[in-house]
């Protein structure tokens, strides 16, 4: 979890809630990534499906939005919710349970944060959205059949903002996303909403992919120690020019 390092004075500091840890796992087993196909169309998500503790976990936001469902992240309660056509699911991160249409359901493995993305058990997709799901182990492929497939998921800028939001995990933050290089690198400004308007920028992050179609990841924070502030801004300028080295 990212802890903001720049001090915020006055009422802004007083209004911030304490950071609470969210369970995360860096990798899921040592198995290869799992492919996802909806109605036989291969999907590309920021974080691929994986096997964890013998169960298949899939990226909730990408798949739910492809199927026409909305997804919201509740930072205060550390849980993710999905809704479609009056059907609702709530998953507390790290807990082996879900609430589907008001009924608590036990899960073999709970939702997890992997590389900044919320991953949920495959069965949750079928139970929550009423679609057919199947995992084909010999092909390392998740197959989903749905009559309400909406095509590719959310705009990349929204995915980038959501990635940073889950990493910071504090309420009342606002994120402005600039595309530095098309679909590869982004600059995110982190601000704090207050009763007195929008506070100054409290941090910046560079988010990007190793190469095309790979998962988006946070590469650098402005106020971390791996780069000086001048090095950070020089790197941003190079990315705007398409210089990645």
Question: Any key phrases for this structure?
Answer:
single chain; 245 residues; alpha+beta; Copper Amine Oxidase, Chain A, domain 1; 2 domains; five-stranded mixed sheet; five-stranded antiparallel sheet; 18% helix; 37% strand
Estimated share of beta-strand residues: 35-45%
Distance N to C terminus: 27 Å
Low-confidence stretches: 5-31
Mean pLDDT: 80
Remind me, CATH topology of the largest domain? Copper Amine Oxidase, Chain A, domain 1
Based on CA atoms alone, the radius of gyration comes out at 19 Å
**Major sheet strand order:** 1-11-12-5-4
Integer tally of domains: 2
The beta-strand count equals: 19
Number of helices: 5
Silhouette: globular
The helix/strand series, from N terminus to C terminus, equals: HEEEEEHEEEEEEEHEEHEEEEEH
Structure overview:
The longest helix is centred in the middle third of the chain and has 13 residues, at 156-168. With 245 residues, the chain is an alpha+beta fold. It has helices spanning 11-15, 60-66, 122-129, 156-168, 229-240, and strands at 24-25, 35-38, 41-42, 50-52, 55-59, 70-74, 79-84, 87-92, 97-100, 103-106, 112-114, 117-121, 132-136, 141-145, 173-181, 185-194, 197-198, 203-208, 217-221. The strands form four sheets. The chain has a five-stranded mixed beta sheet. Strands 6-7-8-9-10 form a five-stranded antiparallel beta sheet, with helices on one face. The chain has two domains: 11-17 and 170-240, no CATH class; 24-145, 2-Layer Sandwich (Copper Amine Oxidase, Chain A, domain 1), CATH 3.30.457.10. Residues 5-31 have low confidence and may be disordered. The protein starts with 10 loop residues before the first helix and ends in a 5-residue tail after the last helix.
């Amino acid at each position: 979890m990212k802890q903001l390092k720049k001090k915020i004075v006055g009422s802004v500091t007083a209004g911030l809630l304490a950071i609470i840890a969210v369970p995360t796992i860096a990798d899921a087993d040592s198995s290869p990534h799992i492919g996802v196909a909806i109605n036989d169309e291969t999907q590309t998500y920021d974080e691929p499906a994986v096997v964890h503790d013998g169960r298949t976990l899939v990226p909730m936001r990408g798949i739910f939005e492809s199927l026409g469902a909305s997804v919201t992240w509740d930072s205060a309660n550390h849980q993710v919710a999905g809704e479609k056509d009056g059907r609702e699911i709530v998953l507390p991160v790290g807990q082996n349970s879900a609430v589907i249409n008001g009924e608590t359901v036990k899960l073999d493995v709970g939702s997890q944060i992997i590389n900044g993305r919320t991953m949920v058990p495959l069965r949750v997709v079928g139970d929550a959205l009423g679609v057919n799901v199947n995992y084909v182990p010999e092909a390392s492929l998740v197959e989903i059949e749905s009559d309400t497939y909406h095509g590719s998921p959310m705009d990349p800028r929204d995915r980038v903002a959501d990635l940073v939001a889950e990493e910071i995990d504090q309420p009342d933050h606002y994120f402005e996303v600039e595309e530095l290089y098309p679909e590869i690198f982004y600059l995110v400004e982190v601000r704090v909403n207050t009763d007195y308007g929008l506070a100054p920028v409290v941090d910046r992050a560079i988010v990007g992919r190793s190469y095309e179609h790979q998962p988006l990841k946070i590469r650098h924070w402005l106020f971390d120690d791996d780069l000086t502030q001048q090095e950070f801004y020089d790197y941003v300028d190079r990315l705007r020019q398409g210089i990645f080295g």
